[in-house]
Specification:
This protein is α+β, with helices and mostly antiparallel strands. It is built from two helices and six strands. A six-stranded mixed sheet has the order 3-4-5-1-2-6, covered by helices on one side. A hairpin with a 7-residue loop joins strand 1 and strand 2. The longest helix has 13 residues. It is globular and about 55 Å long.
């Protein structure tokens, strides 16, 4: 099994095969997922596998049931003479983060998005976005309440 990180970047417009437009923010978790292999760019990830709550109360990510992997970021670990160097202050094992794009558009958001962000942040995801973005405001709201 491979340990994976996942970052879901939200945009106003996402069209497969074209650059996404209007960055709104992201949810990211660098650990907590296992896979048989690291998915390649273009392979599809079932959105239900990112569910962070039970079926009845989960607010799923917006969009289709499957999203294509847009990027794969590999986090390598240097090795010298069969060992990780003492100066290496990161993880001892290599990892990968897959990046997905989801569309929020201008009509989505509000209370459902707020509940989704709360749910993901409670499960250990980081949430961030540009100054004044709805995602950032919702994440700050969750952190203030905790």
């Amino acid at each position: 099994m491979v340990e994976l990180g996942v970052r879901v970047e939200f945009y106003e417009q996402v069209i497969e095969g074209e650059p996404s437009k209007g960055y709104l923010g992201a949810l990211e978790r660098l650990d907590g997922y296992r896979a048989a292999v690291v998915p390649a760019v273009g392979e599809r990830l079932m959105m239900a596998s990112l569910r962070v709550a039970d079926r009845e109360s989960a607010v799923l990510l917006p969009g289709p049931e499957q999203l294509p992997v847009r990027y794969v970021e590999h986090h390598l670990v240097p090795e010298r003479d069969g060992k990780v160097p003492s100066w290496w202050d990161s993880y001892d094992e290599p990892s990968a983060t897959i990046v997905l794009h989801a569309s929020l558009g201008s009509s989505r958001g509000g209370e459902l998005l707020r509940r989704m962000v709360r749910q993901f942040v409670a499960d250990g995801w980081e949430c961030y976005g540009p100054e004044g973005s709805e995602l950032r405001e919702y994440a700050l709201d969750v952190w203030v309440r905790e």
